[in-house]
Amino acid sequence: MIWDKDADAAVKKAPFFVRKKVRKRVETFVREKGRDRVTLSDVKALKKKFLSKGGMENEIKGHDVSACFGGDGCPNSVALSSKQLVKDIETVMASAGILSFLKSEVTGDLKFHHEFRVSISDCPNACSRPQITDIGIIAAALPEITAEDCVHCEACVDICPEQAVTLERSGPIVDFKLCLACGKCMKGCPTGTLDTQETGYRALLGGRLGRHPRLGMEIPGILSHEGVLDLVRRCLDFYKAHSKGGKRFSHVLESLDQI
Ligand code: SF4
Ligand code: SF4
Ligand code: SF4
């Protein structure tokens, strides 16, 4: 799909948390008209539709799963690609009935900020902002020190963005309190002295923006693909059991002293 410059600029004015969705929606709108070029008139026409009575509500599906572009070849991407995880989380969320739950709880029109959001990043750079969503997922690869001889090349020390690796006569030492499991030191080690102990995902719960923002709280450990899906299911059950009047997940967790 080709975008005219002014159309592209107009979409960039939308709040960041709906920008991707608006972009996708505009492209669908244009495709439905049998065209492959987005003009400013298309953006304006859709905006008018959104702002008409009930227009926004028709676009809301109750949940949202977003991801960074790590799976499309970003060099920082930790060993895993989250594309399948995104699809599987989408399936779990779609079957959880969040939209009908919200419709039964919220008085007045549903808004995008009512949606339950999951955001996935393929490395700790966190481009998809998992820290400020209901559930944030960050791909992780944890290092381990093997019995392979270290040649003291210092590549691991130089490459670690967290200064978590130090070198001693016996070889490398990793400070796991500093390590963000980005996987860089293992990729850079020529001897295999630093290798991958475990791959999976870190998870943060209860992040939000708005008038009283807060960062999601990280739960301990590294989750497998199935572990993430199980976490999402349990969070959705908890949310539906305790949220009243469309209260956000983070507020529910706070009110019950869970974060
Ligand atoms: S979060 Fe990491 S992997 Fe994803 S796009 Fe950003 S830098 Fe690349
Ligand atoms: S995994 Fe990343 S943060 Fe952890 S020690 Fe290696 S380079 Fe540093
Ligand atoms: S990169 Fe590997 S070989 Fe080089 S200093 Fe670190 S652990 Fe040793």
Record the SSE blueprint:
Blueprint: E1 2-3, H1 5-11, H2 16-32, E2 37-38, H3 40-51, H4 55-59, E3 63-67, H5 83-94, H6 98-105, E4 116-121, E5 135-145, H7 155-159, E6 165-168, E7 171-174, H8 184-188, E8 194-205, E9 217-223, H9 225-242, H10 249-255
Parallel strand pairs: 1-2, 3-4, 4-5
Antiparallel strand pairs: 5-8, 6-7, 8-9
Bound molecules: iron/sulfur cluster (SF4) (3 copies).
Can you walk me through this structure?
With 259 residues, the chain is of the alpha/beta class. It has two domains: 1-59, Orthogonal Bundle (Helicase, Ruva Protein, domain 3); 61-259, Sulfite Reductase Hemoprotein, domain 1. It is built from ten helices and nine strands. Bound molecules: iron/sulfur cluster (3 copies). One iron/sulfur cluster is lined by residues 143, 159-160, 162, 164-165, 174, 179-185.
- The total count of helices amounts to 10
Rg, rounded, reads 22 Å
For the biggest β-sheet, the strand order reads: 3-4-5-8-9
- Strand residue content: 15-25%
SSE succession = EHHEHHEHHEEHEEHEEHH
Provide the CATH top-level class of the largest domain. Answer: Alpha Beta
How many domains, in number, for the residues? Answer: 2
Question: Residue-averaged pLDDT, rounded?
Answer: 90
The tally of beta strands, per DSSP, is 9
SS-based structural class? alpha/beta
Helix content: 25-40%
Report the major sheet.
Answer: 5 strands, mixed
- CATH topology type of the largest domain: Sulfite Reductase Hemoprotein, domain 1
Shape: globular
Low-confidence stretches: none
**Could you give the distance between the termini?**
43 Å
In the CATH hierarchy, what is the superfamily of the largest domain? Answer: Sulfite Reductase Hemoprotein, domain 1
Give the distinct bound molecules. iron/sulfur cluster
CATH architecture of the largest domain: 2-Layer Sandwich
